[in-house]
């Protein structure tokens, strides 16, 4: 296992070495605008999925069947909206960070507010995602050596810092391609191993899946359910618009393509890829429920524990344990490394406004890596919910103001009183929380992923009321 990880990281450092020659800030922030679009598209699959998907999505079948695919279907029009509504704006303005648009359209404080909410959201979200890989590696590798969890986190973050510190986004376009390949290969081989353990061929697998109650995808008959089709589908659209189109991390790679046309092609391609990839994760979840029943194993109470339970018990053999670890590492590193790079970019460009200062960039990169460690350790202490739900709940509160700011800028021609924008961005999430708690108390209804849309609408309404000169 340890030898496998050493080989894996050695490949990452070789790629980093080859791509970082004569690299400066232009390469770190924008990849010199020379990235092959097909390479970006393939690598973005791994960067967008992350280790959270690897652990949480298979376990979703225990409580919500395959209804997560409804949200994945919503991702497709969401990616098209980003490709043809947002990317043209970013390319036209030749932006290094997408929050520069807010400065030109609404003002300096709006610009700083958007960047601040991105940094807060990304630090929290990336810490949650990377917590998964650190926990898995601790359990499968480092516990046997009696290595403390703190040391595991420090080593993992240091590795990311080392292979991204020179060329940043230019390196990530290529390392993400390698990591996505490893992740998808591991996923397919685990499914093959599980299918073989059940003695099923392809036809038998498809027939049994169709008859299984967990294969339910669509929910149209229950409007109160969080799994209702329209809630999931519409939430999927807005989650992509916000978590990709308004997220410097996700957009930074897309803006390294040579032309707008190539960037649009890469986004549409990997947008379509999410349905089959997540379908494979959900199929794996159903396969594991069959294996548990066949071997008399009790299913875990938390869905996040389903796949790790089989990997830890060795029920599918040592090979699957190795594949599981590689898949988790590949998925998690491909999202964590880009988060670290995007955060460094935003702090240097949006806050210090010094995009040509290499010395500052190196200091910020190291500081962000340190904060990354702190957030991961804090999340280990306070986490008590399903990991993937925690990500989207946080997204609803911290990305909502970004949705409102960009929607106001793109859909209206009105100006705002820029000095009050930060207060609107803070009040809107607090109002969302109050509305959610009050609704639960009075009616029992709990907001789900649609909280993101409510938050964005409240921010938009607040901005609409702020005319220039408002005191």
Automatic annotation (TrEMBL):
It holds the Pfam family SSF. Gene3D superfamilies: Sodium/glucose cotransporter (1.20.1730.10). Keywords: Cell membrane, Ion transport, Membrane, Sodium, Sodium transport, Transmembrane, Transmembrane helix, Transport. The keyword Lipid biosynthesis does not apply. One of its GO terms (biological process) is sodium ion transport. It is found in: Cell membrane. One of its GO terms (cellular component) is plasma membrane. GO terms for molecular function: symporter activity. PROSITE patterns: NA_SOLUT_SYMP_3 (PS50283). It is a multi-pass membrane protein. It comes from the Bacteria. Belongs to the sodium:solute symporter (SSF) (TC 2.A.21) family. This is Na+/solute symporter.
